[in-house]
Please model this.
Amino acid sequence: MPVIAWAQGISLGDASVVKKGHVVFLSEESVVEAGKPEVIELQFRVDEGFHINSHTPPDALLIATSFKVDPGDGVKVLGEEYPKGAAFKLGQGADAELLDVYQGVFRVRLRVVAAKGAQTLAGTLRYQACDNAACFPPRSLPVQVAITGK
Amino acid sequence: MRRIGVLAAMGLLVGLLVWAGVYNLRQRRAAMQQAQVVLVKDGTNPPAASGSGSTDASVFGGESLKGKVAPGFTLVDLSGKKVSLADFKGHPVVINFWATYCGPCRLEMPWFQEFSGKYQPQGLIVLGVDQDEDMPRDQVAAGAKKTGVTYPILMPDKGIAKSYALGDYLPQTFYVDKNGTVVEESVGTPSKDEVEANIRKAVGV
Model:
């Protein structure tokens, strides 16, 4: 029945197996007071079973998660704040390495000043994902944040 | 009476839609879990000693080279010297693709170092092929040094990832016997015992 085929195509949440980025952007529109410094949160989710390095990995060779704001009008970013990572033990015994990672949902806080009206803040989250046994190349996730200055 | 019939039909349709949506979600979640189970067999931390690497590269989108002749290559090592796979004709060779950002790679590289010594009498050669994108040689050298390996580390070129049908995952390792045939391959970090078993296959003991 066509209606069932259509219904089976309905996504009720995070369902795509083909998803290869392993991080998704979750935030919706932020409403802030126009012309004043306000904090907005960018919410991301790392796929279950995967982790990405925190903003402050314990080793310079590991790729830190960072958010880069694209130049644009309407929203000025005054600063950014990253959450603390969680300890993640890779391996066992003497071979083990302790990582500092984000898993599940994490939030990057931006201190912004937005002009009045509907604005868009564009930026890119750079990160590098692994699971317990393998790693994926560094990725860049383009993000567009809708901000309304009132 | 007719109104009741219409309501019943609508109720049935809504029920059908909800069922179909839930069924779809369950199917996709099950498929996703299965996909992750393939990559991380037990899905727990720590994993490496529990054999999390797959031995079938084709599972990850790459074409399996098992049973085929290892593709030849000529790359440069960290000192700039050219190194060809053909230089090791008649030797069992382990070709390990890794990157400096890859924790599981760094975990297994000391094992390859240890086994390169243990199976040296059998002529074992281990080659590490870096897969960092556009990373200067000195930084790759710093990453390799951190793992303590002294076997040759080779810089990548555009062709080798293609000829070895590497997917998006690291580490990937190919175990080549003395006749030049890939006898085993792994994606992800297997347990140390599995690494040694694969090496023994290549060495023929």
